[in-house]
Design goal:
single chain, about 260 residues, alpha+beta, two-stranded antiparallel ribbon, 9 helices
């Protein structure tokens, strides 16, 4: 094609076949299977097992896949999560979520924030503050621990045990007397959060502060962010948590997920 006196070639002529096949291989993991083996990938892609193994070895070296030493199967590596978070940020997760955050803040008049995983910490991408005179100090742009925040636990609960082990430190730092410092207790709580679909944190990071969080999912139904609200514990009594705060929060998280193409 000629545009403005310049010849523009069809970009398909620049495609590198091996790179294309490696990307097709990664796409095989979208179906939700915990792991895929070399034989199954070979069957799906109609390629020799040796070719599949070489691609897997290359992808594993860059953390795009990881092998389960017990079963020999492969699963997606953490590099995909890193790129997914970067893509969301670059393509407007904040823009997509902002109207919902504004609506949620108006409904509840409590601090509302959007958070993602970043280098084994919780990064607050956006936050709207309450207009109430008694409030939690804004933490916009802050990096917070995962193990003692509601949003952090929501993100951890969505991970496999192998992924969790990479993001949970061997020694869990204590911030208040209520911070969970026992890894086994934390793991059990994460199992419950995964089953419930939400997390509640009471005075684990800051005294007199409570936070609630629900997951945000993308078009592949993967958890890519967390929506949370926080405030003084005196306003977050159990009745309000379950009658008002959690239902409203979970609906808002579902609304953002819908905007991201989640069909669950």
């Amino acid at each position: 094609m000629i545009m403005g006196g310049t010849i523009h070639r069809d970009k398909s002529s620049y495609i590198i076949q091996n790179v294309s096949q490696a990307l097709v291989l990664l796409e095989q993991f979208k179906g939700g299977e915990a792991e895929l083996g070399v034989s199954e990938l070979s069957r799906r892609m109609a390629l020799q097992k040796n070719n599949i193994f070489r691609m897997l070895a290359t992808l594993e070296s860059r953390n795009f896949v990881e092998q389960n030493s017990s079963t020999g199967g492969y699963r997606l590596g953490l590099k995909n999560l890193e790129l997914g978070n970067a893509t969301l940020k670059q393509t407007g997760l904040q823009t997509v979520a902002r109207p919902v955050l504004e609506s949620l803040a108006a409904q509840l008049n409590e601090n509302v924030y959007l958070a993602v995983l970043k280098e084994s910490s919780l990064l607050l991408l956006d936050e709207l503050d309450t207009t109430r005179p008694v409030r939690v100090v804004s933490s916009r742009g802050a990096w917070l621990p995962l193990h003692c925040t509601a949003a952090g636990k929501v993100l951890l609960a969505a991970m496999s045990e192998a992924e969790q082990s990479l993001h949970i430190p061997a020694v869990l730092e204590s911030y208040t007397p209520r911070t969970i410092t026992d890894p086994e207790e934390l793991w059990q709580q994460l199992q419950q959060i995964a089953a419930d679909g939400y997390a509640i944190e009471i005075e684990e990071l800051d005294s007199c502060v409570c936070s609630l969080s629900a997951p945000i999912r993308n078009s592949s139904n993967a958890v890519v962010a967390a929506l949370a609200i926080s405030g003084p514990i005196m306003r977050f009594d159990e009745k309000r948590q379950f009658d008002e705060l959690l239902p409203t929060l979970r609906q808002a998280a579902a609304d953002i997920s819908d905007r991201l193409g989640c069909c669950d």
